[in-house]
Specification:
Layout lengths: L1 H28 L4 H6 L12 H15 L8 E5 L12 H14 L2 H18 L9 H13 L5 H16 L2 H23 L9 E5 L5 H10 L13 H36 L4 H15 L2 H12 L23 H39 L2 H8 L4 H12 L2 H5 L1 H10 L2 H7 L4 H10 L3 H29 L3 E2 L2 E2 L3
Antiparallel strand pairs: 1-2, 3-4
Helix pairs in contact: 1-20, 4-5, 5-6, 5-8, 6-7, 7-8, 10-11, 10-13, 10-17, 10-19, 10-20, 11-13, 12-13, 12-18, 13-15, 14-15, 17-20, 18-19, 19-20
Amino acid sequence: MWPFLARRLLIFLPTLLVISFLAFGLSTCTPGDPVVLFLNTGNNPGAQLSDPGAYDRSYREMAASLGIDKPVFYFSVTTSAYPDTLHRFVQKERRECLRKLVARYGNWPQIEDYYRQVAALDRRLFRVAGEAAGQALTTARATVPFLYLQDKDQLISYHLDTLQAAFRSDSALQAVAGGQFEALRAAYQRVKQEATPSAHWLPALRWHGFDNQYHHWLVRLLRGDLGVSYRDRLPVADKLATGLRWTLLINGIAILLAYALAIPLGVYAAVHRGSRRDRAIGVVLFALHSLPVFWIATLLIIFFTTPEYGMDFFPTMGVGDTDSGDSWWQVFSTRVAHLALPIFCLTYGSLAFISRQMRSSMVEALEQDFVRTARAKGLSERAVIWKHAFRNALSPIVTMLASVLPAAIAGSVVIEVIFGIPGMGKLTVDAIGAKDWPIVYAVLLLAAVVTMAGILLADILYGVIDPRVTLGKKKST
């Protein structure tokens, strides 16, 4: 058994590594800027008009604290036109704009000089005071930030013309910052005139070392640090622990109820296959399986949580409020009242599927030679069914563990949202709506790990329920 477990774990390790690549890669490709979300400034360039220097310092400090001011990976494969220092431009939108300019023109030194001239003019305009503080200065200050984000010649020329008109209309502004504007215009002309698109013809492999975003993210992950939430800056692990508590509670109870009801029903239907009882069980379970869970949940809320129909038996939303001084019975009754309906919704949908799987597997087992042999030996029907046929019919039920465990961890999104249960499903939906990606990808990683754990547990249980299965191999019969 131990060599088998060791082999399985050795297979899981590269799988986990690939999953980590996928999760981290998706996190770097998601829309939005985490630093902007932390600073609560939005994506509007006008949000930084108060002081570009102070904004840049705040942005760099926050980016350093989040670890996103480093190269993304250990190495990068690009063309020789791209520099290996592009990650130092930490503002995401500006870095993407520079990447597009390099893709178009290929001459990084001129593009970098143009960017430096934009930043210099931006800082110069915010140091202007006195006689130049007029409408032209306001227009110029509002126009320059857009140059950080434009990579198309038509738009850049438009903003440069707007700046030129502002300088021409105000002699005082021209006197204090006109020279810097002319340097900016000249830098952009050099970008276009000295373009070298042939630089993209040569590939370039650049090694960034271990001081990169993925390496630091992986080290923190191995230590159990899943990062912090973009929305409230709370540790992701703490938020997952809170959601996981309620998800495990309702899904664990629902899974136990579903299996406890479905397995006996499936065995009974298989033993009495073709009878009226078998057909009645099949019709009822098929009808339950056909009812959409969100529709049933809505009907239950309408009829059983409101006084309009005289059946106000259950609370409407949430998991109930309890005080530290409440007795265990008060806490238990409060939780049962709030969780009864969502647990019912989670149970009835899987009841039909599990029972039909159990029935079909049991029917196949009852037709095997070893069952006829057991009956020929004079064993009781109860012993034949439960000791011989049932054990050999459990394989499909064990196989479903690989999907049941992730569902128990990831949560039921629809039910948790409808009933307002603060579990993993609702946490994930709220995180997606708020672009709180650390929580989303933490749930992804957790679900992947639990899926592999479910597969490993299923393999182990195969050897327990079926003597023919030994260390992942089947003996010939």
